[in-house]
Amino acid sequence: MRSALTPLFVTLAIQALASMAALTVPVLAPEAAADTGYPAKLAGVFIGLVYAGAMGSSLISGALIDRLGPVRVSQICLLLCAAGLLLAASGMLAVMGLGALVIGLGYGPVTPSSSHLLARTTPPHRMGLTFSLKQTGVPLGGAMAGLTVPSLVSGWGWQQALVVVAGLCAVMAALSQPVRGALDGASADDRRAQAPSRRRGVFEPLRMILERPPLRDIALCSFFYSAVQLTVTTYMVIWLTEVYRMEFLLAGVVMAFAQGAGVVGRLLWGWLADRHVPPRVLLSFLGLIMAACMAGYAMTGPDWALGAVLVIAIASGATAIGWNGVYLAEVARLSPPGMAGMLTGGTLFFTYFGVVTVPPALAGIIGATGSFAVAFGAVAVITLAVAAYIGLTRPRLVAN
């Protein structure tokens, strides 16, 4: 039992720190904007650059795992996240953009590395729950950012807060070293066996996904769902402080509640996908709730009760932040033996592409219209359409 849980705990901790690194700048964006003079809505561009870097590194993650092992790759990822945060602390716009790309290079291979480890150690009937539990690292990292970063900013300043989070990433990289030999060595045979088939080019994962309708459709679904997720996590604090007129520290607490709901949601949805509800039916249902939450954000104003805003935040967190474990477990199920890491990296190319394009586009919409409501309403309509598509095409997906 202990050996089976070790990969889960290690990957969970690494995922949490990488997620915290990616979301730290959006959380402190209002305070950084006051100091630098850059608009806070540029947080959408920053997060888009993070995932632009992640798109590229996710495609080569399979080759990196083959060569170095999943834990070693994860350690390098954490160090890249730390370096990117230090660059962002410069306060210079171009250097901050470079820092976002470096964080993305580190963020991209984290999930494929963990999928490689967990796919070979998890029984098929526990895939949904195990992958969802591991993926709780993403909202846990977001909750850590929402709860700790505003306090760090208030006490030491936004640049020092970035340095502290960078230090945490470096510490986690060091803490994972004692288990690296055992975990990387255990998967060495799989890596060697699959390595020859993975040397056909960087875009081989994309070709394999596009040739497999179940993987192709779930990857395209992830494009839109990830856009909703990052819309919530990137703009929540900014929306709460600028539109709802909430105090900065309280806005961080609300974000932490949403991230906490994401943790609960990932566990609940993973359990349901394993035992009661087909994964694609569940993904369709979650998309419908996401669309309703985005419509709720669009309609909410300063006169709304705090309780109503909190309910919407929790519901959006449980769904828009909670869907990933079901998705990743389904990718692992559909992948040939030993290729979960490679094909996860390929599907994540689509996932990250949604993040790269939509949050910056929303920044443009908000800038052009001066309205968060228009941007959130557009996301609601698109998400509703995607959720309906996934639900209505379920028989064809299952048949394939």
TrEMBL record:
Protein name per Swiss-Prot or TrEMBL: Sugar phosphate permease
GO molecular function (one): transmembrane transporter activity
Coiled-coil region(s): none
Transmembrane segments: 42-65, 77-107, 156-175, 218-240, 246-269, 281-299, 305-329, 341-366, 372-392
Residues annotated as domain Major facilitator superfamily (MFS) profile: 1-398
Record lineage: Bacteria, Pseudomonadati, Pseudomonadota, Alphaproteobacteria, Rhodobacterales
UniProt signal peptide: 1-21
Source domain of life: Bacteria
Gene3D superfamilies found in the cross-reference section: MFS general substrate transporter like domains (1.20.1250.20)
Keyword annotations of the record: Membrane, Signal, Transmembrane, Transmembrane helix
Methyltransferase as UniProt keyword: no
